[in-house]
Amino acid sequence: MSPLRPCLALAAALSFGLAGCATTSSSQVADSGSTSAATQPAVLPAEGREFILNVAGQRAPCQGVAPMLCLQVRTQPGAAWQLHYGEIEGFNWQSGTEYVIRVRELPVANPPADAPSLRWVLEEVLESGPAL
Fold first, then answer.
1. Do residue 19 and residue 81 come from a single domain?
2. Among 38, 58, 68, 84, which is most buried by a count of CB atoms within 10 Å?
3. pLDDT computed for residue 114 by the predictor
């Protein structure tokens, strides 16, 4: 017996085993027509998660790919400020103004490996005033 035969038998068994992991059902195949699943857009939850944020009136130095200035945010008044490395879509932050805002956290479809998988979108500015 050739020393390669056991390896070939193992490779064949693995390929049959992996074929059993496919997620396409027979009804999906029948209904799919000529469009492949790879060309379908990703379906993301419409709602996401909503929460209230306090945003400081000053940005703080932080280190992303390069040194930058990050928003300072917190979810509870009086809690320690946390650095937010991205922007908040639709939010026009002004230096010297503190904010209380309502944001929605949404998934990013197919984010690059070095990018966040979530994004924040402004829903409403609840309060704004001079930073203390």
1. no
2. 84
3. 79
